[in-house]
Design a protein that fits this description.
8 strands, 38% helix, 8-stranded mixed β-sheet, alpha+beta, 2 domains
Amino acid sequence: MFIDDLAIQDTAIPQPLRPPGQQVFARRAERLRTLAQGHAMADFLYCCADIAQAQQACHDRLSEQAVNSTACLRDMLAQLRQTLGQVLGDASHSAIHCLLAMDDDALQAQALALRAGIAAANPALQAGLPLLGAALQVQAVISARQRDLSRLQHTESANCPVCHAPPVASLLRRGDSGHAVRYACCSQCASEWHVTRVKCLGCGNTRQLQYRSLAHRDAEPAAPNHKQPHQHRAVQEAECCDSCHGELKIVSTLLDAQAEPFADDLASLMLDMLSGEAGYGRIGVNPYFIAGQA
């Protein structure tokens, strides 16, 4: 079990903004390996765990350096490919080679699209997106940890106040009063910002929200309980908005202290599929899984 500066803050007074921990990728790798045991997508989750472990090594190597450059992004991508070696298939190696061969403008354009959860226009690049996303995350986490985040003005924005990327999911933590406190978690720098517990991050709607989980996928959703509007029955749930028809995962550390937004989101992709069949579109962006274009 990893203990970092995020974990130490769990019992403190809720802060508007929580920076990423030093061991953020190692903790993610550990959670992915735990979730992979007996999972139908075990191979995929174990592969993501290997990527997260490689990210931690890359983070540790560069954590004291300035990393906000295309050259550094290339270095990170090349290092991740070398570290992972045979974990990656031939298609991934070929796609990463093509990404590294791009000029700076083209690579940055692809990175910007990936930050928004948009698949590569060229299908040949698709297999390399998880590694490009992994490099972008390392770059964003290091940059966030090097900044003085206390100077940032907190707002309940749909995007991260640190790097302006969209959320991967939201997270329930126990506040100092014992009640759940909700944070949105950035899909890039893993910073967390405090948001209203019952609110769609896509459109700001606070009504007509449904909470669905795989635990009751074969049953009708429970009737809304306004006295306990956020009473979850599963570690991973989807908040579905009947106003904008958006869906964002909510991961509860109250029900599982080791829950981690990126890992738990990946382990519950079936929930996104079921929500999609019910007419809800995914809001969260997870760089480890970018669906290909139709």
